[in-house]
Amino acid sequence: MKLDRLSIKAYLGIVSLILALLIPLIFGFSHYLLTVLILMLVFIMYASAWNLLALSGQGSLGHAAFFGIGGYTSAIIAGSLGISPFATILVGGLFAAFIGVLIGLTCVRLKEWFLAMVTFGFAIIAHTITTELSWLTGGWDGIPAEKLISVTIPNYILYEYYLVLLITVIVIAIIYLIMKSKIGLALEAIRENELEAKVMGINVTKYKLMAFAVSAFFAGVAGALEIHHFGYITPEVYGIDLSFLPIIYCISGGLFTIEGPILGTILITLLDEGLKNFGFTYERFVIIGLILVLIVIFLPKGFVSIPEKIKSMLKSHS
Amino acid sequence: MDFGVLIQMIVWGLYAGCIYILLAIGLNLIFGVMKVVNFAHGEVLMLGAYAAFWIYTFSRINPYLVIPVSMLLIAILGVFIERLGFRPIMGTGKLNEIFLSLGLIYVFQNLAALLWSADSRSIHSPYSNVVVHIGAIKLPLDYLIIIVVTIVFLIAFQLFMKKTTIGRAMRATSQNREAAALMGINVERMDMLSFALGSALAAAAGSLWLISGQMANPYMGAIPAVKAFAVVIVGGLGSIPGAIIAGLILGIGENVLPYLLQAFVAVFHVEMSFTAWKDTIAFFLLIIVLILRPTGIFGEKGE
Amino acid sequence: MKYGILFTVLVVSVLLAGCVEQPKETPSGVEEIKIGVVAPLTGGASTTGLDMWQAAVLAADEINAQGGINIDGTSLEVKLFQGDTETSREGGVKAVTKLITENEVDILVGGFSSGITYADQVVAAEHGVPFIVTGASSPVITKRTDIDTSYFFHHCPTTDDYGEDTLLFVDEIVRPAINERFGFPVDRKLRLAVLYQDSKYGEGVYDGIQKAIAEQNLSVEVVAAEKFKMSETDFRTVLTAIKAAKPDVLYPAAFVNEQALIVAQGRRDVGLNTIYLAVECNDDPDYYSGVERWGEYSILESRFSPYAIPAGAIHDSVAQYRQDFENKWGTSPSMMGASTYEGVYIAVDAIKNAGSLDKGAVREALVNLEMPQQIEAMEGGVISFSPDYRESKFKLYMEQLIWDDSIGETRPKIVWPDSVKETDFVLPDWYEPGST
């Protein structure tokens, strides 16, 4: 039974990866489609990073802070020192991780919604600091960020897509390994019952900080990738929406699972794009909000649990 | 800085503090009884302000008389939020409450924008040109009313909780839910009631805000609400006096502190403006308090 | 395994649905001019975005009603494509990419909110699509160096322009009026307070003010300069601090919602009984309804007003535009829409001049454009773009708000410059000057 489920997962993973590789071939070279997909991949990384922190029971409401810090650090270093974005993206991630640990130090002792408030507030503080340091960050005007791949290269967007896809696969693989390792188990134990975890000899503070660091790192990498794809960064990256999006993706897809954030990001993005084609404006967000509410109440394990639900429903019928 | 100017600034802080207190008391009540947190409390404030706006627009009665109607409507909404949203997920984990609230924020904000557009709405107070002189301070009558109304609400709230059977039952439920249920208290009814009352207070805050010259728009609730959360945490979960004191500290602090800081750095011949940092003061305060005392100033237990 | 397959089918079908929904526009020969309108139709700035879109539709309908334009015997109709930036960077980049690569538009018009437009620009620059920016006020738009800006044309005043005209008016009209009323010496410098948004817009206006004072050698001194955070709602404290500095006039650099609150709170709560100036983007119906009686006698800079029509050359066309807009949409037009309306005409005119839809040729035509002014007064009566940074030059005017009992709101009267003015500037009875 367990083996069966695992193989389905692996099978799905491989199929979706092949699909991702083939998309430009199937649908033809479409700049718009690739732009949507690149953003989708960036958000898959970002949502997975958020999910990893949530795995430890720490639900951040201000992850845009790390997304933005990663982006600004990378853009500033790439711009001022003329270093290739490929290197600065990692630096951006590392700096975000460093800040993540600092915030984590405040947060490790806090429970759910205390932590939610501190992280939310931190995103606002990060936003203000960025706009106030205008000599460095360009203030509200922002600063240009070097493109990942020069636009002078023909079909650069195709290369950019495959590049971001590759990075996404690597990031997901690393997060998967972490989740399956001792660290992942420890994080889950902490989420289930912090006291028990402590009794079992788990160093709660260490693991929680580790989760903060790794999560902030990947959020920073995702942020840096996005702005180097855009070619420009403004303080809008700290927006409340950007803190909420990964949460929506994770919940709708399935919390605490590796495939949840991926599926959630894909489905919600497609839903959003699809509704946009019908000319829906605010209705889109009302629908997404309602879906979120319904999922939290009726499908707490997200879309990934639908097959299981169907299975158990079929079983109870027969 | 001129002393008279400082006093005047403190008065503005007092007014801002009143709004935070009304929001924070409602949050505290809901948390006390149900042990849940509605992050969409700011959107409840927003809907309260819109309710006041529409009732006023169609009836043209004195806007202060609109407040009870708006409170009643939003109290009913609060009951729905509790029954349809928070009741089903009770006991499924704290994170789920945050997620549910997030969904509600999206629904309420965009529904408001969809139904009423993102335009700003305002109410004309009949007393808007009446100014009361208290010593050297000139205070528009509307602000005096807001401060008085807030105090009246606080007293009425305390009396309700202390003197009435229902209030006592609610307090019993917040202290020990199981024991209260065993004693024959209908705790589910208390849940509904706490949501109704908490939402009504948010509606009062929203209506008062609108009458005092603020403008209503679908996004108006977000920032005051998160500041109210900060107030609740700083004051200590479940502590009413804590919420009042923290609310006043925040209201006055975020209004006066930027100028004190400016005056302070001026001593070192540094010219710097801190007014843009206003919204961050609540969170700096929050982080500092939580580092020093993870349960808040008046909190007994961390949740 | 069965469910696994079922599930894969599900995911794939959703994927397909999501992607196939955007069928590529079949290239329909050269029968239409495709114009992409970039505007926020959802999110914080959606009110402005809707106005821009509606104005663009009106322009396109007018052009098509006259049979479109004629190039080499082929008549072309204007077709508009909507690009909703969702008031966000992701939304903006997606929208502009879609307009350019899916809808294959010939030219872009619109662009509101500088922060979002910066990101959009990268896409437009990359594909070399001409972009007539009619909403974002940052002068950086056509001056940035990280991308090729030669395809960007700025058809709305920038923050550099705002301060200059307002300050000239203050120096020429307000200062003498105060000196005369209160018996001050003629050489007394006017005490100006500035309250600016902590954005490039706000800082840009403040810079413009200082530049104007220095360059025009005005008899004005800045006695207070305070900053506030964008979308602030409580200005009482900062206004109390400003009042303590005893200014003669207050110049806020704010958006509509903030400006209305600044004036109302200043007059009503703080008792700062002074002349309030305002940047042009505040000349919006929301301002009049939001500021109530407190806006009485305050000054608005403008280029297109919902309620005032400048005397002189463009009087009739403005009245006609307003009428048509109200007939079509049932609401009154506002300023960002006005320049977007003109933007569509500019685009079509340039294509007509270029005699082709080739983007390079259209760009060339825009550079050399000389088109009569339409519904907004231009310098010299002509819409043309400066050779250095491709900015058009508007002729801004000043309005004073006068209470209208029959409407229950204030209404603007143009008081400056002489060429378009309706009436004289009035220093209200309740006005209190700063220190002597």
How would you describe this structure to a colleague?
The complex is a heterotrimer of chains A (318), B (303) and C (436). Chain A contains 14 helices and 2 strands; from the N terminus they run ααααααβααααβαααα. Chain A has 318 residues and is mainly α. With 303 residues, chain B is mostly helical. Chain B has a single domain, classed as Orthogonal Bundle (ABC transporter involved in vitamin B12 uptake, BtuC), CATH 1.10.3470. Chain B is 74% helix and 3% strand. In chain B, strands 1-2 form a two-stranded antiparallel ribbon. In chain B, β1 and β2 (137-140) form a beta hairpin. In chain B, α2 packs antiparallel against α3 (63-89) and α9 (222-235) runs parallel beside α11 (278-292). The longest helix of chain B has 32 residues, at 3-34. Chain B is globular, with a radius of gyration of 20 Å. Chain C has 436 residues and is α/β, with parallel strands linked by helices. Chain C has 2 domains: 29-157 and 319-383, Response regulator (Rossmann fold, 3-Layer(aba) Sandwich); 159-302 and 396-416, Response regulator (Rossmann fold, 3-Layer(aba) Sandwich). Chains in contact: A-B, A-C, B-C. Chains A and B meet through α5, α11 and α13 of A and α3, α4, α9 and α11 of B.
At the third CATH level, what is the topology name of chain B? ABC transporter involved in vitamin B12 uptake, BtuC
Shape of chain A: globular
The amount of helix of chain A comes to over 70%
Just give the CATH class of chain B. Answer: Mainly Alpha
Widest sheet of chain A: strand order?
A: 1-2
How far is the N terminus from the C terminus of chain B?
A: 42 Å
Assembly of the depicted chains: heterotrimer
Instruction: Give me the strand/helix succession of chain B.
Output: HHHHEEHHHHHHH
Radius of gyration of chain B: 20 Å
> How many whole angstroms does the radius of gyration of chain A measure?
20 Å
Inertia-based shape of chain B: globular
* Largest sheet descriptor of chain A: 2 strands, antiparallel
